[in-house]
Amino acid sequence: MTTDRRLLVGEAVRTARGVPGNAILIEDGRVVAAGDHRTLKTQGVTVEEFAGAYLIPGLRDAHIHPVTYAASLSGTSLNSVSSIGELQDTVRAAAADLSPGEPLVALRLDDESLVEQRLPTRDDLDEAVSNRPVLIHRYCGHVAIANSAALRHAGVDASTPDPGDGSIDRDADGEPTGVLRETAIDLVSTRLDASGSVTEQSILDAMAGLGGLGITSIGAMLGLGDGPWASLGDEVAAIVAVADRLPINAHGFVIAHNVADFESAARRLNGAGDRLRWAGYKGFADGSLGGHTAAMHAPFTDRPDEFGTMRLDASDRLLAETSLRMGGMVALHAIGDRANGAVVDLYEELVTAGAPPGRLRIEHASVLDRTDIDRIARLGLVVSVQPAFLGSEFEWIADRVGPDRIVSTYPFASLDHAGVPMCGGSDSPVESPDPWEGMALARDRAGVTRSEGLLPDRALSLFTDGAAAALGEPLPFSPGSPADIVAVDRDPVASDPDQLRGTVVFETWVQGERVVVDRTRPICSS
Fold this sequence. Notes:
- Among the domains are: 5-52, no CATH class; 80-193, Diaminopimelate Epimerase, Chain A, domain 1, CATH 3.10.310.
- Helix 2 (66-74) packs across helix 7, helix 3 (84-96) packs across helix 4 and helix 11 packs parallel to helix 12 (370-379).
- The strands form 3 sheets. Strands 1, 2, 3, 4, 5, 20, 21 and 22 form an 8-stranded mixed beta sheet that branches. The chain has an 8-stranded parallel beta sheet with strand order 6-13-14-15-16-17-18-19.
- It contains 19 helices and 22 strands.
- Helix content is 31%, strand content 23%.
- By secondary structure, it is an alpha/beta fold.
């Protein structure tokens, strides 16, 4: 068998740990060493020079919803609408392209950007489309709005009780307004089939587009055909169908509600392809700040009667224990301070029972008490943060949490100073998957409590060393690690945040193979 030995030479090799030289020696898709090209260049090695380029570890997005992200690129996105009238026009136009009776599911509505400064209602949607079910999702994924046809199709009316961990907004007569929160979305989403909007090719195109951003691995959050995005079908099945053609690595975290379904999904993911593996369990402790459903100790400052929704229950403990027993991780979504405290309580019990703390992740950890930061550090838990949230929330986040809590909202520096292992992600399609924007926001925070910004090398670590560890991957560029490498036009540590946002990716390699990217396709939904 012929050995493929190549030496990639650039301006410099940059990692979160420093600059070990200007070249990387790889052999059969694995890193042999990083150092000076004069030392690493030996007989029989093919040299590839990238003048002026910086070679950095492949970037990791530790928390992304790949199937829903693909749907946001190929389906109807409402991210750019600025009024309910414009929303109606967009929905009306999208519905005109569908077959009779086919439901319309749209994503990424941001009501904070609407001139009306409110969520639309069933009546607003009925004015646009009344002859087919319509369900539109707020960009956070924790609030959705259904038109009358969708509510009728799902059998939701004034007599329908609120489900556990969710609520139906109602008018003065008790009739649903169309606004569904948390698990109430499932009442409608599980009755609609819009899975045809996400094809195998659209998923592969979306994953290649991530490679074009410099992303070589993802923490893939995958549903089983239920939950808010249930209309898109079984996401585990969708990713398994393309496993043998994935251009990047995917580590699947399964969103399940019982042990049998969870174990079945893990078996389907493992062995499906070299670049797909089962990673663990994903659950929810609460909702979102934007939707006023994050579980808080004190009420929201702008809605003093609302404390959010606590979703953590006994099933999460059972599924967490199952995942750990199977050798997997646990990733629990927690936004509000009350939810974070409850997750830390659960994890402390699991650690006491023998669970490895490095396999216990808190997803988002948006609002944290100082005591919980100390507990997280003492226990050695992993915190998965999404700096991109600040890019869409900076205009209203202070009004939502108030002056006392804003200083402990997205406390990146406090977590880092406490020694908490951290990884970075986007939660896309909630936010753009652009890791350069995420890295920049980890540093400048869009001006929100700048003292909680990370130093440049620590921001890079979020998406390289820290994320690799949180996905169970080796330390990037260590001997024997996969040759997941990105060539870019600037040093991400020496660049300021605005320069970082303009980073150009020249090449991306996954296990030593170039990722082929169609740069005419969108990588972020509009």
